[in-house]
Write a structure and sequence with these properties.
6 helices; globular
Length: 118
């Protein structure tokens, strides 16, 4: 794996952390997410950035970590970027609640494995 991948993974964790911070600030509930454009925008911009970062993950990492749905995260980015105004708020919420924690676990695991090799 390349050093660039490690840098990208750390940036992904940074954006996940920002989503977690927004959840803390707004009470981590769907009603707040639905009613607050500030909450939604904060979280969705982070997801957009995560998807953008997934686009630059090396082919080597994509192949070795094929259980991570890199392509789907890129697709989520495109959805959030191009259809944001019409996006179903529930779909966005489910991405944050269901998919983002799994991505975090995988990224943390990959980073641990990198550090163990060094």
């Amino acid at each position: 794996m390349k050093n660039r991948d490690e840098t990208v993974l750390l940036k992904i964790l940074k954006y996940i952390s920002q989503v977690e911070d927004a959840h803390k600030d707004y009470g981590n509930n769907f009603e707040s997410f639905q009613s607050s454009s500030v909450y939604r925008n904060a979280c969705c911009m982070c997801v957009l950035q995560i998807g953008e970062l997934c686009k630059v993950i090396s082919d080597e990492l994509r192949q070795s970590e094929n259980q991570v749905p890199w392509r789907e995260w890129c697709g989520i980015r495109d959805l959030f970027a191009h259809q944001y105004a019409e996006m179903d708020v529930e779909i966005a919420w489910n991405t944050l609640e269901d998919d983002l924690p799994v991505l975090k676990e995988n990224v943390e695991r990959i980073l641990r494995e990198i550090q163990e090799k060094d």
